[in-house]
Amino acid sequence: MQFAATPTRTHAPRVLILGGTTEASQLATHLAARSDVTVISSLAGRVSQPRLPAGIVRVGGFGGVAGLISYLLDEDIRVVIDATHPFASKISSNAELACSTLGLPLIALDRAAWEPIEHDCWHRVPDTHAAASMVNHRLNRVFLSIGRQELGAFSNCEHAWFLVRAIDAPSAMLPANSKLILKRGPFHLNDELQMLRSESISLIVSKNSGGTASYAKIEAARALRIPVVMIDRPRKHNVPTVSQPGDVLQNLEQLL
Ligand code: NAP
Q: Max Cα separation, the chain?
């Protein structure tokens, strides 16, 4: 599905941003304002009412590596920017394979992970299943803030109580003792403090997403001395990465 009408093709090189993140939207805003490139953002379509980035936007999977290769050829894409979320590893590996097959340049943006600082109390775990087995205790009131895709890992947690926050209603079964709130970030420190206090949260489960949009809950946990079960990132890239949107733009200049 494509949201903005494709303009008459100019000779401006066509750049594909694999998106779904704040940084991807920032890059799209910057590039859409330029006349020397045509930018297309691609969203997976996980969110029912996505915030559409500037420029042309397409939504939905490509159909694996083969589908992505066809898309890149059909749309005459010259450079791919992978600005997907640190936990979206499949699309990044597909992009690497498709770009190497076609000899296309790929700029991979990998925003820095959060690191614990003084007064943070983190228990690092490798994945959601490890997090689920760690928190399932009847005394725990858990703020589960991992999006909705991997909530299924917690569906058998019958002992703890969960406050689950997601943008859209999850399709996975929620834990027996839970309350769902549907809300979209960015989130602010005062609101997070108020929510954690009013729900008497004793433990937080978070992905180590990095970035600012969802960091307020980590700051709130620090202020209230609430421990955080922090899910480490999957290995995502096999190509060199940059950590800032500005670095992406610099690399793009060199390639164009
Ligand atoms: P994933 O596991 O890496 O990708 C699964 C499949 O979804 C891909 O194989 C691809 O389907 C499709 N896909 C993913 N990103 C796409 C994109 N930008 N454009 C078109 N198709 C895409 O990804 P995910 O973890 O499900 O995340 C989906 C999207 O949500 C990502 O774009 C990511 O940036 C965003 N997001 C993810 C998280 C998270 O925690 N995982 C959090 C915030 C935002 P085909 O194989 O059919 O091409």
A: 63
Q: Give the helix/strand (H/E) hosting 142.
A: strand 141-145
Amino acid letter for position 54: A
pLDDT in single tens digits along all 256 residues of the chain: 656 544 456 789 999 999 999 999 999 999 999 999 999 999 999 999 999 999 999 999 999 999 999 999 999 999 999 999 999 999 999 999 999 999 999 999 999 999 999 999 999 999 999 999 999 998 999 999 999 999 999 999 999 999 999 999 999 899 999 999 999 989 999 999 999 999 999 999 999 999 999 999 999 999 999 999 999 999 999 999 999 999 999 999 999 8
Q: What is the Å distance from ligand 1's center to 43 Cα?
A: 7
The Cα-based distances of 162 to 31, 144, 194 in angstroms read 41, 6, 17
Is residue 8 helix, strand or coil? coil
Backbone phi, then psi, for 79, in 5-degree steps?
-140, 140
Scanning the structure block, which residue is given the tokens 């007064």? 119
Residue nearest to atom 34 of ligand 1 (CA): 84
The three-state secondary structure class of 110 is coil
Which residue bears the tokens 């955080």? 228
Nearest CA to ligand 1 atom 39: 87
Cα 109-111-115 angle, rounded to 5 deg: 155
